[in-house]
Each structure stands twice: as C-alpha cells, then as structure tokens.
Amino acid sequence: MKKLSPLQIERLKYQPKLPSSLAKGINCLELVEGEATQSVRDQEQIKALFKNTYGKPVVTFNSTSSNKVSELRNVGVILSGGQAPGGHNVIAGLYDALKQANSANKLYGFLGGPSGIIDGKYVEFTDEFIDAYRNTGGFDIIGSGRTKLETEEQFQKALAVCKSLNISAVVIIGGDDSNTNAALLAEWFVKNNAGIQVIGCPKTIDGDLKNEQIEISFGFDTATKTYAELIGNIQRDANSAKKYWHFIKIMGRSASHVALEAALQTQPNITLISEEVEEKKMSLESIINYMTDIIVKRADMGKNFGIAIIPEGLIEFIPEMKSMIANLNDIMATLENDPDFVNATTIREKFDIVENRLEAANAKVYNSLPALIKEQLLADRDPHGNVQVSKIETEKLLIEMISTRLDELKSQGDYIGKFSAQSHFFGYEGRCAFPSNFDADYCYSLGFNAFALINFGLTGYLSSVRNLTKPASEWLAGGIPLTMMMNMEKRHGEFKPVIQKALVKLDGPVFKALEECRADWALNDRYLFPGAVQYFGPCEVCDITTCTLQLERAKELASV
Ligand code: FBP
User: Fold this and answer.
1) Predicted pLDDT of residue 191
2) CA 501 to ligand 1 center in whole angstroms
3) How far is the CA of 146 from the centre of ligand 1 (A)?
4) What CATH fold (topology level) applies to the domain 220-431+508-554?
5) Which listed site, 148, 215, 244, 456, has its alpha carbon 20 to 30 Å from 490?
6) pTM, rounded to two decimals
7) Closest ligand 1 atom, CA of 312?
C-alpha cells in the first residue's frame, strides 16, 4: 500500500460542493437555451471556418423533478498544456456524473495529453483509480502534453481510436490553445458525421481564459494563493534581515493576472505589469529608472531592502524587446537547419550569426543584453514557435541593469545605499499544489457539468460554471460555444482561428486597485502575510476566492 501524508489522507475524504442545479442529479436536469451567439471578432471568417458549430446558443441547466436513466455513453478525457491545481477533480466530477447517469458508462483517460488520442494510449477509469486522486494536485493521473491537434491525419487517427473504444464524446481540459484544438476537433467530427461530441473545460493558472461566461479558469485560485504565501514569507524575511532586495518573477506566460493577484494579496514595494509597460511604451531603460527611483528613495529612508514582483512575460511586452524577439523567432526557425549555427562551437559564434541576421535596430537591442539573457533567448521555441519566457531570467536582467545604474548614481553622489539582491522565480511551485477548497469545488463542478453538456448532445461547447463569488450552491451551470471566444490571429506567419487571450485590462477594477495603492506600498511597508492555503477551518479563511474574482464580479454586478 502506498504511503500517504496526513493531508493526503484527509483531502481524499473531502466531498466537493456542486451548484444546486447539478446536485439534484445528472438525470434531473433541463436545458435552457439562450440567444444565438457570434465570435468576439472576425465573425465572417470564424463562421466560414466553423460552418457546423458556429452561432450556437449559450445554455444553462435547471434541475427538474423527472429522473430518467440516460443512454449509454463512453467518454474520453484529455489533460492538455501546463498543470493547474484541480485537474484531477475535473476528471472525478466527470466520472461521477457519467456513472450516475448510467452505471454501464465508461470513462477513458488518454495518456500524455492530446497525443494520447492520436496514438491510442489510454486507461479505463475505475472507482478505485479515481478515488486515489480526489482533491489532489497535479495531472499525474494520466499526464499532460502540448501536442497541437490540427491536421487531417491527426483527426482521422483520433476518430479511429474513439471508434475502437465506442467513445461518443471527448472532454479536453485545457487553456486557450487546447480549447482551440477542441473547437477544431468538434467541427471536424460534425463535418465528417463522426457522431463524436467535444466539450472543453477552462484550465490555466495564467487566468487569461476568461470572459463574461467564464469568470476564471481553474487553478488560478490555488496557484496565486501559493505564490502569495511564498512572497509573504519572503517579505517577512526581508523585513527581518533588512539587507536584501528580492526580485521575484511570477509565472504567467503572457498576461500579468497572476503577478497582479499575488501583489494584491501581499502588497509588495514594486509590481510591474506587462500590459501597462506595453500600453505606456515603457522602454527597458524607463523600467530600470522607475525601479531605481524607488530603490534610491527607500535607501534615503534607511531601507536597503524591498520586494519587486515581475511578471513572467514582461520581456515580450517591452516595445524594443518585442520587436527584437519577433525578428529573432523568425530567424531561429531558419537557423535550426543552418549548419554554421548548428555546428558553432562557442556561444560567441552563435551570437555573431544571430546579430548579423537581425535587422539593425533589433541587433542593437540584442547586443545590449547581458550574455546570459542573449543565450537564453536562443533556447528552443515552444510548439507555436515562441520564446519560452519561463526560461528567460528577466529578474536577473533587471538586477544587473539596476546595479549598474546604482553604481553610476553612487559615483555622482546621488545614491548612498547598499544594493544586494536575491532573485527568485515562482512558477512550478504553484501549479500542482493541493487545490484550494474553491478550486476543488469549481473543478469538480466543471467536470460534472461537462457530462451534463454531453448528455444533452451538445458539441463545441466549453463547460461554464458562474456566479463564483457566491456559495457553491448558488453557482450557475451551463455551457458556451467555443466559437464565441474565437478570433483570427497570426501564428507561424499565417492567420488562424484561435481563442482570444484575456490580458489585464488597465481600466479594469483589478489593475485600478493596484494603481491606487502602489505609491504608498513602494515606500511605506504595507506587507501582507497570507500564509499557506488552508483546507480546514473557518470559511472566511478556507473558502475565500481571489481579489481578482471579487473585484471583477463586484464591478459586473454593479453594472447590471
Ligand atoms: P497553460 O496555458 O497550458 O495552462 O500553461 C501555462 C504555463 O504554466 C505558463 O504560465 C508557463 O509559461 C508555461 O505554462 C510553462 O510551460 P511548461 O510547463 O511547458 O514549462
């Protein structure tokens, strides 16, 4: 028997809460259809590409008194992309609903992400299998992957695998890219009369898969609370020793929602928000000046310590870097097969080849960077051909440039402090934590609800559970068409239909909350210490949601 920690044992017993409409039973639901929908942008192009799944209505579920056994359905499930706390509960909710609907139903888990459905690698879930993973973090129940599902050949293979298992529906648990895959697969299955439905579930710690119907993606709650705990601990350390500046890079591929939320929970001295940097066209130099100014002012007050939060994707939002990285991404695609580059024996030779190929202005920016960052910018691209920003040590770049600037100021007599910095990157630490009560309940509900959508024969929908700042019993279950969230974007030089990413809105209530306080937090230490995620205890501590969700919902409700 596998040894479990005391918390593992207790969490396995936790019974996640469901919205009252779903709690009555999977066979006691009625479907309510809303108005027909359209995509967020590029309606004509999206409609042409999704002839069979475009324009469907938003749907919601009500409970009814009728209780009928559903027809037999076998379902396959895929975990796709980066890990996010609560993924196991989505599968547990899906499994429970499917077995409640008809005990002869079967749930298959495809192994290692989307490639599992193409290669026919799967497991069949049983009660015992599922029970060992309830309320646990991670995606290790079946693993995850980032394979894109987009080619005719992949779709044909997926169809053959589903047919061999008599699968009539597939649930894809993923972020914007994975749900774009889900939309493409759904359309292809309908077009080819495959008789297989596809339902998505909104996952990503990044919090950038959201809109009016999807208030937040799952995992954001737990991950941000985990980072906030760590930042709070570091703030205590900094405030105790009073000798270090801590530069903390926080995960979040592109949008700064995670950094912003972690900042609101902890109130650090400096928080950079990538979307603001882009909007204000802040150069690297102006970011350095902004941060140096605060460091100097604090030093004048006798405080040679502080906390700076840096969003993971920052580098791509600094205008001159964005242009250089875009140019570099194109060049890297050709250099992969260039013998001079591939066989270069020193990193200096690689730098020279790259600098010669970059446009003049971009070469200048690239050349101005420290060697460490130049080298990291040459690392392997992700499946979309982009730099993997989690591997770029922006926090170290900023420390190095600020140190140089402070030395200059010191030599001019404008700085009297002592700058000693520590760098951190909080990312993987938060993605597989035990899901908070919120994420445990939300994920279970999303999975349960995904089966409800399947049971009503829907396809090309995203599982939607709303009203999330209210107790779970008041949550609203339903679904939104995936095409409703799509627009056309350039990928690998071509316009493709993709789910639109939600970036931080600078006129939104969450950013405004930071903006109002940050000057005060910069100089007067207002650190908050959130502590670890709590699973047992008063609901004011255990069941609270994020500042982001609370502020956004409050604004939405006020405008109704
Ligand atoms: P998803 O969008 O797939 O949920 O992944 C998000 C993320 O955690 C980002 O925050 C991060 O940049 C990236 O994954 C890291 O990817 P990897 O796990 O491949 O290193």
Assistant:
1) 97
2) 14
3) 10
4) Rossmann fold (3.40.50)
5) 215
6) 0.94
7) 12
